[in-house]
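Ticket #4471: structure output looks truncated?

Reporter: J.K.
Steps to reproduce: submitted the chain below (375 residues) through the standard prediction queue, then opened the result file.
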Amino acid sequence: MEYATTYDVGDRKRDGGINEDSVAVTVFEQGHREGYHARDRPAPLERDDDDESPPRAGDSGPRGIGPGSTPRNRSTAVFALADGAGGHEAGDAASYLAATAVCEQLADVAVRAARSDPEPFGLRIDRPLGRPLRTGDLEAAVAEAIVTAHREVLAYARESGQRAHTTVVAGLAVGGRLHYGWVGDSRAYVINERRADITQLTRDHAVVADLADAGEVDDVEARVHPRGNEVTRALGGRGAEDPETATVDVDTDTVDLFAADVVLATSDGLLDAQTDAPSLYERYVDAGRDDDAAERVREGVVTDEEIRDLVLAAGSLEGAATDLLGLANERGGKDNVSTLLLRDRSLPSTPATLPDRSPASPSVEERETVLGEDD
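Returned output as attached by the reporter:
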């Protein structure tokens, strides 16, 4: 398993601002006997049969694996990325508590899920391993970890007398599948290098996302809407709820992963970097939402297609993380920016037709993420 992270306060906050984002990741790698021999395990590099070009820099696969060889270990990973709500007193503490709590709880689940499946190493052990964890079990574990984080943030808010809110997106990658959940507008994507495809795995819990679903704003308008910083769901609060029994609605889903996939988790600072969004919005609406005005908006904001192209062009995950940060700051860098990229070259090859990996559940002047007025 390869991974890379980056986090930055953002250019507009570099003098006196603080970074309220938090990122946490843990990887469990296991080797046994002569290696991991599950069915249809490809070489780490996925290239077309007629592509005789040498591997790109950074394409050597997991640590210790050379180009063209098959990984001999298997990996599981858990991650959490949280974006503390700006304008609230303890957003930085909230994001720290959320990211660490989620990973602390899910790390044991990841190891147990891998340990309960010895068959890829040619072993059959019934006891004491017990029943392998299924998709429903793992999605429930992600949701439970996020609820635990919610309670920790509430406990902190009560004890400190401060308001503390944060978004979170979290995942558990095991057995060639990603089980993930989220609250708020921090996002997860999967970018497939072989098919040059990007899919947003999450749906923002945000005012503008609701307006778009209701058909009240179009896709271009949504990118620069004046309410683009308002989320409708978050962890934490004012400390009024009982931290021992409080809960929060967590959306979860599961997707298959392939050797050519890069999983990207990011705070909204990557997508919402544009400092000139209010004027772009006004020009677009005043122009009657015509094509020329729409193109000016697209040129000014960070689009999913740009993210895809940048990741595909980078020579490594570290390079992609650095380039994404540079792109956000180039477009304005109005907020904290955090990214996490994961890739497992030992997974099966990309099928001829990618499955639909969209979420099952149905981006400004300088400002931070805040809760919507109704919350």
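Triage note (M.O.): checked the attachment and the full token line is present. The longest helix spans residues 135-160.
Status: closed, working as intended.
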